[in-house]
Amino acid sequence: MIVLGSTSEVAQAFVEKALQEGEKFEKIYLFTSNKETTERFARHIDVKFLQQAEVIELDLTKEIDYNRFDYINSNVLFCAVGYLGEGTEEGLYDNRNTERIIDINYSKLVPVMNYFAHKFENRRSGTIIGLSSVAGDRGRQSNFIYGSAKAAFTAYLSGLRNYLFDKKVHVLTIKPGFMATKMTEGLPLNPKLTATPKQAAACIYKAFKKEKNVAYVLPVWSIIMMIIRNIPEFIFKKLKL
């Protein structure tokens, strides 16, 4: 299994869930921009599950040498890459902040996804799981830079799913709502609408095994976002969301 964004609590919880369920991987490739933290996780799954893992440094803000990845073969790709950025008004008009949000969540991520998707296509098997966000379902004033990048990523996964369908490769889009993670620490999240990484991992694993196309981590979010998507624009633009 290939894991992009392997410092993510959700990614690590999914790896553990899959191993607990008896999934067998010759090796798990943990891509990360934080090697030290990821190496601790690699040691953890080695001790707990006797699972071999390799930590690979990947910084999406820098130029990538894809030749380093030629030897990697896998049947599952799990992408939990995400960067919320600074959502305040100051952050909105900070172009470095904007560029980083777009780069990490979409523009620099998609070429990496495509590189491995091509391998899956050539092998004519496998599953690609991408974590997008409910923020991509409609632009809201509170996080529309992040939301626009996630909307683009959702569209990318949809197109990739369509393209790879007859190549026998399954693409699963996951749309988490509020998540209790380091990225959202300190935000005033409604506990009834917030999932833990373990809850998310269980939902994602279930969707993976059922070969779903799109899944919300908490079912209530599908209802919430259906309502939000259908609010007429002349009303929606006046709302504080």
Give structural notes:
By secondary structure, this protein is α/β, with parallel strands linked by helices. The protein has one domain (2-237): 3-Layer(aba) Sandwich (Rossmann fold), CATH 3.40.50.720. The protein has 9 helices and 9 strands. The chain has helices at 9-20, 35-49, 89-92, 95-107, 109-123, 144-164, 197-209, 220-229, 233-236; strands spanning 2-4, 28-32, 53-57, 76-79, 127-131, 170-175, 178-179, 194-195, 214-216.
Structural class designation:
alpha/beta
Task: Just give the CATH class.
Answer: Alpha Beta
CATH names the topology as Rossmann fold
Quote the beta fraction. 5-15%
Number of strands: 9
User: Which of globular, elongated, flat, extended, rod-shaped describes the shape?
Assistant: globular
Biggest β-sheet description: 7 strands, parallel
Radius of gyration: 18 Å
Number of domains: 1
CATH H-level superfamily: NAD(P)-binding Rossmann-like Domain
Q: What does the average pLDDT come to?
A: 94
**What is the number of helices?**
9
Percent helix range = 40-55%
CATH-defined architecture:
3-Layer(aba) Sandwich
Strand order in the sheet with the most strands = 3-2-1-4-5-6-9
Q: Quote the distance from N terminus to C terminus.
A: 37 Å
The string of secondary-structure elements, in order, is EHEHEEHHHEHEEEHEHH
